[in-house]
Design a protein that fits this description.
ECSIT; ECSIT_N; single chain; elongated; 2 domains
């Protein structure tokens, strides 16, 4: 059992150093059972206190051999090449995502060097590298202090929702009223633009009251 390398470590000595030592010992033995070892290691990341350490996930992903599992022909690209290894890699990345560990360019290169540029596992890390920094400071919970005990309009509530979606303090909210020719009631919509978008597209020139012949 690959978990013995972690089970035999005394509880008072279970830390980052001991966890990485177990990975080093496994790599020195050049065992082919790297999938089983990684699955076992993931069960102990929190117990060893390394579940939020980027270096630990890099060490686990570096266990995969480089170049061997990259597709070499069209058939291999269509099929899921080395499915157990790729699913294992995705599980490591899922663990990172669950604990909010931000990926970097190095961990992206580790996955690409192991599985190729556009495989199942490499697509996963590309999405993480793109989206996780954008959502790092997002807040999915509305601040109750802004709404409790207040008679807020629909526009004010939507403004609070937009502030939750985009955390850039330099952004501004545009409130635009729209009147349809066949309707008496005026409607509105709100948009949230960053300063970069404002400067590049001149969105501040949009009139606050427009009529549409719809």
């Amino acid at each position: 059992m690959k978990s013995r390398q972690f089970d035999t470590v005394p509880r008072e000595e279970r830390n980052k150093k001991a966890f990485h030592a177990a990975i080093t010992i496994f790599k020195e033995r050049r065992s082919r059972q790297h999938v089983e070892f990684i699955h076992s290691a993931l069960k102990y990341v929190k117990e060893f206190g390394v579940h939020k350490e980027l270096d630990t996930y890099k060490a686990l992903l570096n266990i995969f051999p480089k170049g061997k599992m990259i597709p070499q022909n069209t058939f291999q690209r269509i099929m899921l090449h080395y499915p157990q290894q790729q699913n294992c890699c995705v599980k490591v990345l899922d663990e990172m995502e669950w604990y909010g560990v931000q990926p970097d360019k190095e961990i992206h290169d580790i996955v690409v060097n192991a599985f190729g540029e556009w495989n199942f596992a490499s697509k996963k890390i590309k999405r993480m590298v793109y989206w996780m920094p954008k959502l790092k400071y997002s807040n999915k919970y509305i601040d109750r202090r802004h709404i409790e005990g207040k008679d807020l309009s629909a526009a004010e509530l939507s403004g609070h929702a937009l502030k939750m979606m985009a955390r850039d303090p330099a952004s501004t909210i545009e409130y635009i009223k729209v009147k349809l020719f066949h309707q008496v009631e005026r409607r509105w919509f709100q948009s949230f633009f960053s300063r970069f978008v404002q400067e590049s597209s001149k969105v501040w020139d949009i009139p606050k009251n427009i009529s549409l012949g719809i």
